[in-house]
Design a protein that fits this description.
- It is a single chain.
- With 259 residues, the chain is mainly α.
- It has a single domain, classed as Alpha Horseshoe (Serine Threonine Protein Phosphatase 5, Tetratricopeptide repeat).
- The chain has 10 helices and no strands.
- Helix 2 packs antiparallel against helix 3, helix 2 runs parallel beside helix 4 and helix 3 runs antiparallel to helix 4.
- The longest helix is centred in the first third of the chain and has 18 residues.
């Protein structure tokens, strides 16, 4: 597992492609070894690697097959099956299938709340991801409502300075901006920048991006520039131990074995 390049390492495309091919071949010749008693993390790692490589349709095909097989050989309610379904939703999102991603994420969240409980890390990640899909679908108020809940959950469970909490705070600022609540967005963005500078340091890439986005937000509020993009409004990272925790959500937030 240590051979896999770091998250978003675009300089190691050939290595990633080789590891994907090796994983698929190993699964073919040893099945069901990588699926018993649970799914090996590298099965899920292929999904995120395909997405990171921009091979979105291949990621969808692979993730659909992984979800089907996990459903058949493990159990519909097995945590690894829920992970496979969550990864499939992320693949749908990256392939531009916004409604498919949203529909699946609603089901994944309901299942995780039922099976794992409302405060399990994977459930929190599912809540975060659903908010991202509502935003993708233009459901601004739904995204804002969910992001307020996600932030409250992370502050309560992880603490105010956890990287996931900082990312959730940043994403809520984006939803405020989308909803036209410009002053709320600016105030929260200023807090986010101060938090990142204190927790990550002034020269961390996320801090630098946040500082740039805050400047753009101020210009936008004055009517000088359009839009602000998020450095962290992403899906939860796909399964680790293969994947290190990211300052998200993952897009899509991290959970037990997921982005």
């Amino acid at each position: 597992m240590s051979l896999w390049p770091p998250h978003h390492d675009h300089q190691a495309r050939e290595l990633s492609a080789m590891l994907r091919a090796n994983t698929v071949h190993l699964d073919q010749v040893t099945r069901p070894a990588l699926w018993s008693p649970a799914t090996h993390a590298c099965i899920h790692k292929v999904s995120v690697s395909l997405t990171e490589a921009g091979l979105y349709h291949q990621a969808v095909d692979y993730s659909e097959e992984t979800a089907r097989h996990s459903h058949a050989v493990l159990d519909p309610d097995h945590p690894d099956t829920l992970t496979a379904r969550s990864n499939l939703a992320s693949s749908y999102r990256e392939a531009g299938r916004v409604q498919d991603a949203l529909d699946l994420r609603e089901r994944v969240l309901a299942d995780r709340e039922r099976i794992l409980g409302p405060d399990h890390p994977d459930t929190l990640s599912a809540r975060h991801n659903l908010a991202a899909s509502y935003s993708d679908a233009g459901r601004v108020q739904d995204a804002l409502d969910w992001r307020e809940r996600v932030l409250a959950d992370y502050e309560r469970i992880l603490g105010p300075d956890h990287p996931d909490t900082l990312a959730a705070r940043n994403n809520l600022a984006i939803s405020y901006s989308d909803a036209g609540r410009v002053q709320d967005a600016l105030s929260l963005s200023e807090r986010v920048l101060a938090d990142y500078e204190r927790v990550l340091g002034p020269d961390h890439p996320v801090t630098l991006t946040t500082r740039n986005n805050l400047a753009r937000a101020r210009d936008a509020a004055a009517g000088a520039q359009p839009g602000v993009e998020s450095p962290t409004a992403t899906d939860e990272p796909m399964p680790g131990p293969c994947t290190p925790a990211q300052p998200h959500h993952t897009g899509e937030l991290g959970g037990s074995t997921e982005s």
